[in-house]
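Many introductory courses stop at the sequence. We go one step further.
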Amino acid sequence: MLQRWRIAIVALAALLNIEGAAADDFVREELRIPMAAAGPKGLEAVLVRPRGPGRYPLALINHGSPRSSADRPGMTPLAMLPVAMEFARRGWATAVVMRRGYGGSGGNWAEGYGSCENPDYVAGGIPSAVDLRTAIDYLSQRPDIDPSRIISAGVSAGGFATVALTADPPKGLVAGINFAGGRGSQSADSVCHGERLISAYGTFGKRSRVPMLWVYAENDHFFGPALAKRFNEAFTAGGGRTTFILEPPFGADGHSLFSRAGIPRWTPLVDNFLKSQNLVLRDTPLPLATVELQPPSPMNDKTRQAFADYLASAPHKAFALSPDGQHFGSKSGRRTVEEAKSGALENCKSQCRVVVVDDNAVR
């Protein structure tokens, strides 16, 4: 008889509406944010916050942009829920918003910067900031949001969007966080006219006065450390305010630091920054939910670790396993259960069957 695992994961019970004490600590809401340029669909979003009455400061979480345009429609706000939950645990109402042309948001993709031979990164960043401002304006009207304390945190193109937002900040924006921000990386360690991207940061820095945390990793293969330092130099030369941190290598590509896997690394950096800005809302984060689930059998060490990672990932998700326990596949952060199941089987690439869906064993 296999011992039942008790695994603490990022508010999974709350995200899946599982009963329990920890589940009651959070509420989650799927939203459509009205925006004329996004058409009838508006902007797809998910908001998670601590349970209870009151007005909560707002943290806006901003996604990146895949190198392939074909990957944009498959993106979901659910994929960033583990990251969003870390802010919610610290007392923030946290919204993950898909900008125009990504995931289930409406409208045309608005963030084009032209060709690689002649990029205009400022022109690409301004529409991103427009979408973020639209989301902030809408969310600020909610009775559970405190519009006087708003932060924006983003990764890659979302980090660049946050930088652009600080150059024309909405009322109430008190801080920004840029993880590995940039545009124009079309392959590893290659950026289209990097000097123009540096210049774009200089342009935004001339107008930005919102305090920011910037974090890049030494092994970032989108925007390497030498380039990141020049971004910061250009931005601060114009008057922009940053706390710049170059982190040691993370994983195979440090560009993925702001992720579920990177939570132990990036949360202390964020906590220290928020403390420096008098934005600590709780002495200790709210507890994680605890879920009991007997792992599938048989499993080797590799598949057992993969299953533990699966449990900590975002819904909707599925885990597939081969009869001998040697092969596995998983898919998480999908819009539907069926999409997650299909992706898990495709990733397994063996004679697998789906054995877990979301947090439930398949019999």
